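Quarterly update from the structural biology core.
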Amino acid sequence: MPTNQPTVGDVLACVNAAQVAWVPLTNVTSVWSGTTGGSAPGAGSTIYLPPGNTFNSLPTTDSSAITRTPVTRTTTLQNLYVVLSAAPGTGKTNTLTVLTNGVASALSVDVAGAATTGNDIAHTVSVPAGTEIGVRLMTAIGAPSSRTAWAFEGR
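Predicted structure, tokenized:
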């Protein structure tokens, strides 16, 4: 049984292993994750994908309602993590950036050299309800083709 009474907009949440309580929906974290869908963008390419992407096509232009998804409430985007199937190589950097209404945000990860993973846990981006979010992946010229996966939170 919940330990408190709900108010409008609350959701039932597990507080610990033995207790549930009503909490404001603002305390809920959403996670967006996606991949290049088994496709590996070529060297020097820039592609745009929706945050929960699993398509096999790799759009090279950003488009409202195609490569972006609207958020339904004011949200703070944070904790971006990226995994590549192949490292970019010496002197090369692949960059994944979260876009808001088609514009690069501060939430971005550079994966360089021999690395295949990276994260941005330092930046947060606050967006109002209705903002479209998407992902831009820029692959370095001369880098090997690499499948990419990412995840980030909205709170």
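Residues 40 and 130 are 31 Å apart (CA to CA).
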